[in-house]
Amino acid sequence: MDFFLQILLNSLVSGTQILFLSISLYLIKTVSKIEHVALGAIGTTIAYGVYSSFKASGSILISILTGLIAATILGLISFKLLEPFYKKKQTLYALLVSLAFGLGLESLLGIIFGSGSKNFIDGVLETIKFGTIRITVPGFYTIILGLVLATLTYFIIKKTPLGRNLQSLSENQNLVASLGINQISIRKTTYILASVIAGTVGTLISLNSSLNPTLGFNFIIIAFISLFVGGSKDIKGIIIASYILSLVPEFLINYAPNTLNVTSSYKMLFIFIIALILLSFKPNGLFSKNVRSN
Q1: Residues of the chain where predicted confidence (pLDDT) is lower than 70
Q2: Domain spans of the chain?
Q3: CA distance 229 to 285
């Protein structure tokens, strides 16, 4: 039982890390119909900014301020890069540009900081005990902040006029314009907010393990898959999908018979198989309704 609970707790941490990026992707997708896959590299870049600032100043406040400035700059750059493709309705080109931007950021980080790993905290991470199971302090804060973020996002999208405006922004521009809403400002703010969220999780992941230029790559791939498995317009489905694609592979790896020699290298394979199965039955998202065609 303790082994089960430990795997569950560890998987909740990784699932929440995926959730941060899934929500970031969802926000951009909601206002622009664009999958901004560079958010993984953006989160890593912001984490490097926080790391460098902390090592130089020793101040948490200055580090946070540095992260916010970096997130704002990268959010605005993202907006400038992708907004023209939104206006032309060239979402595929936007995806390619976003991918190129992300790869460029990773390469730049490698040039500046090298390919080796950096540690925010030297030595063994402090842990919190729940009976016989343990969780690192950064992992604990990741779960708490992730649950707060998921709850706020769900409430805003589903229960407030702002959420309805966001959802209608990319669907009916004329209606939104008739209401006197500044569409460009909303999209620009959304890009910055998505970068802040990505930077937050990039920093939390780095605190929980280590920091390297390609840190965000696997996470953004899983978040990207979660976006479509959950339903790109359904925040509830995306939240559930983020955890499914984190929990199920971990249990399959840890409970597989030793004779099969299943290791963590199988994780992405399991994720793709699970996604394929779910999308086969629910191509429009976990909670979509199947409509019979005549």
Answers
A1: 169-181, 290-294
A2: 19-216
A3: 5
